[in-house]
Amino acid sequence: MQSVDKKNWFAERIPVDWNSLKHFTNEPVPNHLKRWWFALGGTPAYLFMVQLITGIFLTFYYVPTPEQAFESITRITYEIRFGWFIRGLHMWSANLMVIAVILHMLRVFFTGSYRKPRELNWIVGVCILLVTVSFGFTGYSLIYEQLSYWAATVGTNIAQSVPVVGPFMAAFIRGGEEIGPNTLTRFFVFHIGVLPTVMFIFVSTHIFLVRTTGVTEFKFKEQENEKEETFPFFPNHLLTELIIGLLLMYILTMLVVIFPPEMHQKANPLVTPEHIKPEWYFFASFRWLKLNSLIVGIIGQAVAVILIMAWPWIDKIFRRKNENSELSLWIGVAGFLAFLALTVWEAMV
Amino acid sequence: MDSSKKDDVSRRNFLSTTLMGVGLVASYGVTTFYAANFIAPEDKKKIYRSLYVAPEKSVPVGKSIDFEDLKGRKIAITNTGDGFKALSTSCTHLGCQVHWENEKNAFYCPCHEGYFDSDGNVTKGPPPAPLAKYDVEIIDGNIFVKVEEVYNAIS
Ligand code: HEM
Ligand code: FES
Q1: In chain B, what residues touch A165 (CB-CB under 8 Å)?
Q2: Among A18, A282, A347, CA closest to A132
Q3: C-beta pairs of A115-123 under 8 Å, 24+ apart in sequence
Q4: Which residues of B touch A178 (CB under 8 A)?
Q5: ipTM score of the complex?
């Protein structure tokens, strides 16, 4: 009797149709998602939650001023109890997040899942990648050590050199004509305010589109004689995701314990160190800039991003003559190998 | 008669909708303008002035000394034999600091391997332009460079 009352109590105060909601959360999932690599999309989402939580923790102690940024992170790393662990989680999870987003994109690309009617969601996905590396760029700059300071200098100057809108964009990001006292504050605001909001909106849109267009269905040989075409999202698929989550937590903890975060040299605006390197996911971009003149260096990267965004339509052109054309696949392989080659090249020297 | 009354109503409707629309656009427009000004960095007119560096005698031919402008940016001041040269050490590629390397006989930028000769001209690598030059003046045997003025107070 009492429990019925309770149920009504909530139902009256939250007047939604619970059954239709159930329909949304318990949507049947196609069988191919039993394969772990189709569950890679959940990984960045999971890591994003890790970033939110550890990020909020770091914000309790971090001070975004040129005088105190480095000192406050030193304090987090060496003095505050478990500071090294929280910071380490944030740092490693950021790296894994970039890897996870790239792997997820590769899966979508090589299974052709960006094709009609999922072109828009492909674009949202590319935006998520861009936001992810922006997180990395702004977050890394917050440390205010030599390498991160010069990475911020080079990065904002790249923005500055973009034709037409560049100078305005760079001034907006830096809060001035050059890196100055405003810059760290702005990076901090982007990193913990603007980007998380934008990321949340993109990820929500992404998931909404996945649910409305459905995922591309694949058949595998061994699954042909399975009676059911689908399995329930709840609890089966959720369980798969939870297992992946547990595995991620394990990997993250191992990485933090074995490779804890450290402090290097504090930023010095007057001296560029002899060996400067950005974060690994910018290696390819960095090498490309060394190989080309400034303008080719920048336009080339912009063109690459635009091409990736436009791929669903480029692929359509390839397949107009021959429905089974594999041109997209081969260009994809070549493009990714080029990215890897530039990355490894930069890593070696 | 009936129809004219209807017209009246819709005309009034039209007027108030238009006025509301214009008001809405105007007020959001003004707000956006204020907001844009708030986040846009200040755009001050640049004023230059001469800054005393050192007596001419203290920089012998072929030697170079480091100096800083009022914003704390580094300037390399060199005696070439037939005059003094003041070069900014900010790389014209993407803003790293170059430094003089004796064995390479060049200003070297470690960021993307840019090289400049002692006149500041690019000899190798991606930098698109020579190092920026500051004007040098010699007054009564003393070296002065022209640098950008820095404001503290509201201008
Ligand atoms: C996808 C999301 C995020 C990514 C990829 C990311 C990435 C990064 C990176 C690479 C660093 C430098 C870490 C280091 O090397 O020590 C960093 C630092 C920082 N992040 Fe994030 N971040 C994310 C989300 C957040 C969020 C949501 C917050 C806060 C609400 C936050 C707050 C901070 C703070 C305060 C620091 C400076 C402390 C430190 O360097 O250890 N981050 N972030
Ligand atoms: S910043 Fe000097 S070569 Fe790129």
Answers
A1: none
A2: A282
A3: A115/A216, A115/A312, A115/A315, A115/A316, A116/A312, A116/A316, A117/A213, A118/A209, A118/A213, A118/A216, A118/A312, A119/A312, A119/A313, A120/A209, A121/A206, A121/A209, A121/A210, A121/A213, A122/A309, A122/A311, A122/A312, A123/A309
A4: 71, 95
A5: 0.72
Do B110 and B131 fall into the same domain? yes
List pLDDT tens digits, range A232-283.
Answer: 777 777 888 888 889 999 999 999 999 999 999 999 888 899 888 899 999 9
- Looking at the complex, does the CB of residue A150 fall below 8 Å from at least one CB of chain B? yes
* pTM, full prediction: 0.81
Q: pLDDT tier at A41 (50, 70, 90 boundaries)? A: confident
pLDDT at B152 over 70: no
Let me know whether B3 and B36 are in one domain. Answer: yes
Is residue B89 assigned to a domain? Answer: yes
Number of domains in chain B: 2
- Inspect the interface and report whether the beta carbons of A276 and B127 lie closer than 8 Å: no
A122-168 pLDDT per residue, tens: 999 999 999 999 999 999 999 999 999 999 999 999 888 888 888 88
A62 to chain B, minimum CA–CA distance in Å? 23
The Cα–Cα gap between B125 and B113 comes to 6
The pLDDT assigned to A129 comes to 96
Residue of A nearest to B110 (CA): A274
Residue A187 in contact with ligand 1 by CB distance below 6 A: no
* Domain hosting residue B127, numbered range: 48-148
